[in-house]
Amino acid sequence: MTDTAPPAASAAGSHADSAPAKPAAKPARPFFSSGPCAKPPGWHADGLASASLGRSHRSKLGKSRIVHAMEMTRRILRIPDSHRLGIVPASDTGAVEMAMWSMLGARAATVMAWESFGEGWVTDVVKQLKIDAKVVKAGYGELPDLAATDWATDVVFTWNGTTSGVRVPDGEWIADDRQGLAICDATSGVFAAELPWDKLDVVTFSWQKVLGGEGAHGVLVLGPRAVERLESYVPAWPLPKIFRMTKGGKLIDGIFKGETINTPSMLAVEDVIWSLEWALGQGGLTALIDRADANAAALDAWVQATPWIEHLAADPATRSNTSVCLKFADGAVEGLDADGQLALVKKIAALLEAEDAAYDVAGYRDAPPGLRVWCGATVETADIAALGPWLDWAFHTARTA
Description:
Elements: H1 11-18, H2 60-77, E1 84-89, H3 91-103, E2 109-113, H4 116-128, E3 134-137, E4 154-158, E5 160-161, E6 166-167, E7 182-185, E8 202-206, E9 217-222, H5 224-232, E10 246-247, E11 250-251, H6 266-282, H7 285-304, E12 309-311, E13 323-328, H8 338-354, E14 370-374, H9 381-400
Parallel strand pairs: 2-3, 2-4, 4-7, 7-8
Antiparallel strand pairs: 1-9, 5-6, 8-9, 10-11, 12-13, 13-14
Helix pairs in contact: 2-6, 7-9, 8-9
């Protein structure tokens, strides 16, 4: 009897053999968008208090709910009494713009950019305000030499790069004896990191990130040095009404006591109160950080075991624990240029959404082609663990289609 070799596998068969089967289990909550982000576990619209809806934000009830949200925010984030906290228009962007347009120009400035939103602040400072600022940049996935920062200048920077997955490791690089202001866009870092409030003169964020709140509202935190700047300096350019924080050379203190500049959504206020109460129930800031760290670790475990993907932020010490950005590993997408890789990302995201396995995991449009997975505290670690096999299935399916 003559032995016969089996027929050689075709290229198509070879691809099919290497492609994983469609996973059986899906994430229970497939919400991985980096903004607006997943609602906290257990959230439901029926749970929102309705008493303040349809009421004026200036009524006793409306104002009390705004103040309640501010007080819980201060408590969870451990913001010292020396810092003022106010709810302002236009999400984190509005809060950053208020700070820059109201305070910059009094001395030289430095604007730092290592991702898309930092690039946006560079454009505003240099092209719109026309300040001759020093611009310090680093590529996606990297940080510049923070130790070289000139603290004789006002410094604008992001704590956590939402579109690059890179965050500053701590506040040690911020000078205690700085002459300029430290203006920090912390929107995807706050509630997932310990912020050194004594080193930060301005901090901005929005509800839609780590809290899983609604968009359109920003939070502005001012330290004593920022208030001093506002009361001693008048910029050369006109300020729109929603940017004005002083009157007659004095801070409009009501902004930081629940008297918002314009009309807020009381539904959004009630929504963030729900999230803040959930956060307190979890154990406050420490628990939120632990949840984000656990989520990021679960995603990292999958990355380390998966040959076709890797972190955009190579250094674990400066890698975000919220907006985790991933790129294709070298050799994983041979033959595809940047446009081809972007098309592949879109296919992957579409496959996942069609299966209700993951929503909104495509990387940011200006970032290198890849994926972005939100790992903030409102996401469950079990859902991150369940996501990995689906990402693997979607990549191979899209690649061989």
